[in-house]
Write a structure and sequence with these properties.
The complex is a heterodimer. In chain A, α3 packs across α4. Chain A is an alpha/beta fold. Chain A is built from seven helices and nine strands.
Chain lengths: 261, 293
């Protein structure tokens, strides 16, 4: 089903080698303590789905914020070749005085989309996340999963080729999370997005990503990475996901145990 | 590589998701009908008023106090009716309400600017914040003697007292409103690429609105109180007869019926403005945000 989009034919331009290139990135908040991020190198190809996995406080959210442009790194560089990235948080962070459609429209307005176009485009984006006809609802009239999908529609409204997600489904129950995994994978493959997905849930990382990066804590460093060879869509219960998750969990636990000695 | 057997088709997952939505979307209780509203919200205060008047009549009938000190409800009603018929009540209301409105609007302008300045400058806030909060608990009637010495028995003295009473509440309300804005929402504004002005206009101000509005409501209550205190004390023919002055005339004539009628009028006007202007505004703002029904 070909949907009319507001996007200029970006795909026809010469595709850059990577959507984001992070080089030797370091972030130091307090001088006497180990750096929050240390010599991070990440390269995300256009259309690639990368999961960033690590224990709480390992700096994965800091890394994501820096890529989103919400801070300045102490040293190193971040090159985002696809314009302003879209960012989703663990909370939906919807503006409660606006309707679902109003929240999506604000993102369109920030991009300078005209009023009439905003309305039809918001409706299209809401139907993309399976919320057709729900645009007039207020935030408090939506369930947690619906709110997070409105947030997803708002992120898509930024029309970025790069979607950054900071544990976006961590606060949802397992059934709803499952539904949103399917939703996200469908949108990712349809829209050709690059995704960096931060999580501390190993199975979720393997369920979603083409590549899983494991981060160690203090200093925050990328210690290992895995290519996930399975095709999408795949189920979180499938034996392949389980096997790889078991292997990665083993390394994650070893990484955490290092700090217990 | 083969797709796992248990994988669902797109259509299946859409239906699954729609089912979740139907089960999980919060069900809002429907708004009560007029009958229920009457029974729940209107009837109880009416019962209380009737009971109060009955007690009053009982106190009068049993001569608890001499009748010049405690007139009957009917006497007060007659005096009240008299002041309405000969236009004194309307004159007093219009004088006091126009003063109150003007004083409140001036307080609104000054309080809002003060609040904004204190929000922008941490230094200013640390320097004068405690005094602004302290002023909020100072009864503004304490300013009346000072105002009379500065401005004489004039409108200026009355407005000075009203401003000193209302400005701190409004400034503090605005500050509280800004303080309550979740930092995450401002982050959203930045992620969406809104300009500074755009973030203030589309995120910060609407998010601060509930706190600001409750500051305004309190500011109005303080304006009205300060105004009555000022009118009660600054009496001069040039100032006309507002509700406070009318109350003072009643005291000087030892006419308790007029005193009670004036108190009643002051109460009704203050409550009416709160109910007709501020309450609907606040209810609308809160309901939009799902904070109340």
């Amino acid at each position: 089903m070909a949907q009319p989009t507001l996007r200029p034919a970006l795909q026809q331009q010469a595709t850059p080698a990577s959507s984001v290139r992070v080089t030797q990135l370091a972030q130091v908040f307090e001088r006497d303590r180990p750096p929050v991020l240390d010599r991070i190198d990440v390269d995300v190809a256009p259309g690639e789905f990368v999961c960033l996995l690590g224990a709480s406080g390992c700096g994965k959210s800091t890394l994501l914020s820096l890529i989103a442009g919400l801070g300045t790194p102490t040293s190193g560089s971040i090159e985002v070749t696809v314009g302003r990235p879209a960012l989703m948080f663990q909370e939906p962070a919807l503006l409660p005085w606006l309707t679902a459609a109003g929240n999506v429209e604000l993102a369109l307005k920030a991009r300078g989309v005209g009023r009439r176009e905003r309305r039809t485009e918001a409706e299209r984006l809401l139907s993309l996340v399976n919320l057709a006809g729900q645009g007039r609802k207020r935030v408090h009239e939506l369930s947690g999963g619906m709110r997070q999908r409105v947030a997803l529609a708002r992120a898509l409204a930024q029309d970025s080729r790069l979607l950054l997600m900071d544990e976006p489904f961590a606060a949802l129950d397992a059934i709803t999370r499952d539904a949103l995994h399917e939703e996200l994978i469908r949108l990712w493959s349809e829209q050709g997005l690059s995704v960096i997905f931060v999580t501390h849930n190993v199975r979720e990382a393997v369920r979603l990503g083409q590549r899983v990066l494991l981060m160690g804590s203090r200093p925050g460093r990328i210690v290992r990475e895995w290519q996930v060879g399975m095709s999408q869509p795949r189920a979180i219960e499938s034996p392949g996901v389980s096997a790889l998750a078991t292997e990665i969990t083993h390394h994650l636990r070893a990484e955490i145990s290092r700090h217990g000695r | 590589m083969a797709v796992d057997d248990e994988t669902l088709t797109t259509e299946d997952s859409r239906t699954f998701e729609a089912g979740l939505d139907a089960l999980e979307a919060p069900t809002l209780s429907p708004r009560p009908g007029p009958g229920a509203v009457f029974l729940r919200s209107v009837l109880p205060p009416m019962v209380a008023v009737v009971a109060f008047i009955a007690l009053w009549q009982l106190a009068y009938s049993t001569d608890l106090k001499p009748s010049y000190a405690l007139p009957s409800p009917l006497d007060v009603l007659r005096t009240f009716d008299q002041t309405v018929r000969d236009g004194r009540a309307w004159d007093a209301i219009s004088i006091s309400v126009s003063r109150g409105a003007l004083g409140f609007l001036a307080s609104l302008a000054v309080g809002t600017m003060l609040g904004l300045a204190m929000w922008r400058s941490r230094w200013l806030r640390t320097a004068i914040g405690p005094f602004v909060s302290g002023l909020q608990s100072l009864p503004s009637v304490a300013w009346v003697p000072a105002a009379i010495i500065w401005f004489g028995l004039s409108d200026a003295a009355i407005y000075a007292v009203v401003l000193l009473g209302a400005v701190p509440s409004i400034a503090n309300g605005l500050l509280a409103g800004f303080d309550q804005v979740p930092p995450l929402l401002d982050k959203v504004g930045r992620v969406l690429g809104l300009s500074t002005i755009g973030r203030i206009r589309h995120v910060l101000l609407p998010a601060a609105l509930p706190g600001y509005l409750s500051g305004l409501k309190q500011g109005w209550a303080f304006s009205w109180r300060s105004l009555m205190a000022a009118e009660l004390i600054t009496y001069s023919p040039a100032l006309g007869i507002g509700l406070g002055q009318q109350l003072n005339i009643g005291r000087e004539l030892n006419a308790m019926d007029m005193v009670i009628a004036s108190i009643f009028l002051i109460l009704v006007v203050g409550v009416a403005i709160e109910l007709l202007i501020f309450a609907p505004l606040e209810r609308r703002v809160l309901r939009t945000r799902g904070l109340t029904h």
